[in-house]
Amino acid sequence: MDTEKVQTEENTRREREIYRVTLSGSVVNFVLLLFKFFAGIVGHSAAMIADAVHSLSDFVTDIIVLVFVRISSKPEDEGHDYGHGKYETLATALIGLCLFVVGVGIFWNGAQSIWHVIGGGTLPEPGMLALAAAVISIVSKEILYQYTVYVGRKVQSQAVVANAWHHRSDAFSSIGTALGIGGAILLGDSWRVLDPIAAVVVSFFIVKVSVKLLVPSLNELLEKSLPAEVENKINGIVLSYPGVTSPHHLRTRRIGNSYSIDLHVRMDGQLSLEEAHRRATAIEDRLREEFGKGTYISIHVEPIKSNPLTGESGTR
């Protein structure tokens, strides 16, 4: 009961920190997207409008994190024996998907503008307001990234770290936007195409970040095993206990910010049930010490019986 109380208090603190950092980000994103849309329209900048759309996606992902992290922090219940941790993983996948869609959309719009110039068309000159908006966005989003990624790693939240990278991708987007707008303003009419070119370049960065978020979150949702180095560490911990041998049938997966570990071990068949249970519990405690108190662990004990004719050991 004390362990459950401690775990509940930790979940509450974790949820509070996640809400604080995400709410701060959502306020900044909302102000930025309004300013960027205004600056893009008034300043005649396709790159800035694309950047504003990116900020809109940031705001949407903030809402996703706020909703899904609250769900994922709920304890186990009758219908969710392993808790609700994968809701956070689902949020990460949705953020990655949003980024991917935004990246493709920015690429498409920029490519259309470039094709328009190749066909002999002209683009309007971006205004200084659009350039100022890009610079403000770069500074504010990088600060927001540093704050968010710090909290995300501290509370071990994939969704918050993913959201931090969404902030940084917006900063990268604004850097490209600033270069494109600045070049279009300072280098003359024939260089206005730099504005949509900047949008296209930024789109590649956004898609790259989206893939980095989507792949691990989809792997978790599809029950991919933990990395080999983690499984090797698990086996090493098990084998460090005297009288415990042959760890096998190891099955691992990630559930939100926790691990799930199932394995079989072998012990002397002459041990009492109480002693076998004590050893298995000691292994569980050591694994939770290594991988976190919220780790789900199931250890199945198999007996070893010596063959009186050969002196060899076997299972039964």
TrEMBL record:
<feature type="transmembrane region" description="Helical">
    <location>
        <begin position="128"/>
        <end position="150"/>
    </location>
</feature>
<feature type="transmembrane region" description="Helical">
    <location>
        <begin position="21"/>
        <end position="42"/>
    </location>
</feature>
<dbReference type="InterPro" id="IPR027470">
    <property type="entry name" value="Cation_efflux_CTD"/>
</dbReference>
<keyword id="KW-1133">Transmembrane helix</keyword>
<dbReference type="InterPro" id="IPR050291">
    <property type="entry name" value="CDF_Transporter"/>
</dbReference>
<keyword id="KW-0813">Transport</keyword>
<comment type="similarity">
    <text>Belongs to the cation diffusion facilitator (CDF) transporter (TC 2.A.4) family.</text>
</comment>
<feature type="transmembrane region" description="Helical">
    <location>
        <begin position="90"/>
        <end position="108"/>
    </location>
</feature>
<dbReference type="InterPro" id="IPR058533">
    <property type="entry name" value="Cation_efflux_TM"/>
</dbReference>
<dbReference type="Pfam" id="PF01545">
    <property type="entry name" value="Cation_efflux"/>
</dbReference>
<dbReference type="GO" id="GO:0016020">
    <property type="term" value="C:membrane"/>
</dbReference>
<dbReference type="Pfam" id="PF16916">
    <property type="entry name" value="ZT_dimer"/>
</dbReference>
<dbReference type="InterPro" id="IPR036837">
    <property type="entry name" value="Cation_efflux_CTD_sf"/>
</dbReference>
<feature type="domain" description="Cation efflux protein transmembrane">
    <location>
        <begin position="26"/>
        <end position="222"/>
    </location>
</feature>
<keyword id="KW-0472">Membrane</keyword>
<protein>
    <submittedName>
        <fullName>Cation diffusion facilitator family transporter</fullName>
    </submittedName>
</protein>
<feature type="domain" description="Cation efflux protein cytoplasmic">
    <location>
        <begin position="226"/>
        <end position="303"/>
    </location>
</feature>
<dbReference type="InterPro" id="IPR002524">
    <property type="entry name" value="Cation_efflux"/>
</dbReference>
<dbReference type="InterPro" id="IPR027469">
    <property type="entry name" value="Cation_efflux_TMD_sf"/>
</dbReference>
<dbReference type="GO" id="GO:0008324">
    <property type="term" value="F:monoatomic cation transmembrane transporter activity"/>
</dbReference>
<keyword id="KW-0812">Transmembrane</keyword>
